[in-house]
Amino acid sequence: MLTVNTTNIILRELRLFLKYSLCCGMVIIFITGCTTRNNEQNPLIPESLSTEARGLVLINEIYINGNPDWIELCNKSHRDIDLKGWGLSDDAANISKTLFPESCVLPAGDFQVFDLVDFSLNDTGEEIVLSLPDGSPADHKVFGEIGEKWSLGRFPDGTNNWDLMLPTPGSSNGSRN
User: Fold this and answer.
1) Does the structure show a pLDDT above 70 at 77?
2) Which residues sit opposite 115 in a β-bridge?
3) Contact partners, residue 120, CB within 8 Å, separation at least 6
4) What is the pTM of this model?
5) How high is the pLDDT of residue 148?
6) What mean pLDDT do residues 63-83 have?
7) Count of CB atoms within 10 A of residue 159's CB?
């Protein structure tokens, strides 16, 4: 478990990294809601065991009309999963366009929204790939045109059924009907 002092060090290092990145004109990814928690009730699946998480972390919702576009991930497991080294891309030949930073933990049963700043998604459709640290695909979705006010999401959450819906960033998806 992280102590307050450890958390302050991590936050300070993150601020320094962002300050350096912005000064150099590089922004890798803006992440909303990443946590660094771990507890005995939800043991952490570390990055080194991330292949065990294949099929447990899924692309759950895609929104392409924002500034920036965003992707929502869903953790279907009962364990927190460390996303360190995982990647997102719109190009299956270059699956590491955006890499998740250290200590990015997706809590068990939770949703997290990730703004895409290294690339944007084509509003007429394309592919989004979520990759494991070893470079193998964890999930992907090929999609067509989504439309201005809609997102494309799994309904119900974490299933193989996709539907157009009103955006529900960071929460359970609802059908458009």
Assistant:
1) yes
2) 30, 70
3) 64, 68, 69, 90
4) 0.72
5) 85
6) 92
7) 12
CB atoms within 10 A of CB 36: 17
- The strand pair at 44-45 and 80-82 is best described as parallel
Q: Where is average pLDDT lowest: 2-11, 91-100, 142-151?
A: 2-11
From the CB of residue 175, how many other CB atoms can be counted at a distance below 10 Å? 12
Q: What is the pLDDT of residues 6-61, one digit of tens each?
A: 444 444 444 434 433 333 333 333 333 444 344 445 555 554 455 566 789 999 99
Residue with tokens 């494309």: 152
Q: How far apart are CA 55 and CA 39, in angstroms?
A: 22
Residue environment code for 43-58, b if the CB has 16+ CB neighbours within 10 A, otherwise e? ebbebeebeebeebbb
Write out the two tokens for 77. Answer: 């497991």
CATH classification of 31-165, choosing from 2.60.120, 3.40.50, 2.60.40, 1.10.3710? Answer: 2.60.40
Q: Residues with Cβ < 8 Å from 84, sequence gap 6 or more?
A: 47, 100, 101, 102, 103, 104, 133
Closest CA to 86 of 103, 75, 99: 99
Q: Dihedrals φ, ψ of 5, to 5°?
A: -60, -45
Domain ranges of the chain: 31-165
Backbone torsions φ then ψ of 113, nearest 5 degrees = -105, 135
Task: Give yes or no for a contact between 145 and 125, defined as CB atoms under 8 angstroms apart.
Answer: yes
